[in-house]
């Protein structure tokens, strides 16, 4: 007997051919930056996003330049609860006591006006995991508006350990059914064989991973690389079920960035399409348009012969957001399409039909929370 995830993916192939977190937002300003003219007016914004589990966490630190273009940046902050960075990406990390410093990598030193760079890291915590309350950029305390800082830039850079880049990720696989577990999630490479090309998955954590896929420009879904969390509760027993995601996806090819939620031992498949590109389309027929779970969808209902499929297609593409999944599942129940189902896997990934030449899909952050 094939493993469960293989049976699940084989069922998906029947439709081939058819076209978490806490966020701290800080305003930041300064008057001089390293490797920039002394008179340059500069400011920035930081969004610090955390996905945590017992004893560990993954964080993304999105830095947006609000002032003059920069050629070289150093971002620093203090941890309040003894947190430790264990590995980082998108910059060169160092830590001394509670002080963490991230310096640009060679490939992201240039930061234009209104451009954003997103270094991230995995870490450990014990007791509590309070988010940093203050950041400095190039040694200047951030104050909230362009040109608003009063400090001076540092004269030397901190040590520069080798960063964790996709090429040196914690886990990589090119196997057809390659899997990896981390923080209560499972990552799947999932290539469906016939007609598919090559695909390689990398991961720094369940929350930060990606794939390079090279699938031919022919009809039919070729793969669904994804991160999965199992809920295993009846819908009536779920008080909350939400998810956050942030991705970077190509402008070409044919694919959907989508949630795939399974209920009643795979009798029901609920898809939440957040972004669709190219000649792809859902199974079944359009039932209605509705706003639920924080988004507006075109809702389709159909069957692939093995299970019923409910597809919620977002009316406009988005690459980041929060979804109230419980609200969507309850909407389906209220419509009378199923009863008090057992909610199983909640998956998020990329259903790829074509990606000729090798396209990159990156999950910058992802989490599922339920209670």
TrEMBL record:
- Entry superkingdom: Bacteria
Q: Where is the CBM2 domain?
A: 37-145
Here the segments flagged for biased composition (Pro residues) are 155-164
User: Which portions of the sequence form the region Disordered?
Assistant: 141-169
Fetch the SMART domains from UniProt: CBD_II
Key word Disulfide bond present: no
InterPro entries listed in its UniProt record: CBD2 (IPR001919), CBM2/CBM3_carb-bd_dom_sf (IPR008965), CBM2_carb-bd_dom_sf (IPR012291), ConA-like_dom_sf (IPR013320), GH11/12 (IPR013319), GH12 (IPR002594)
This protein's UniProt keywords: Carbohydrate metabolism, Glycosidase, Hydrolase, Polysaccharide degradation
Family, according to the entry, reads as follows: Belongs to the glycosyl hydrolase 12 (cellulase H) family.
Which protein, by its recorded name, is this? CBM2 domain-containing protein
Species per Swiss-Prot/TrEMBL record: Plantactinospora endophytica
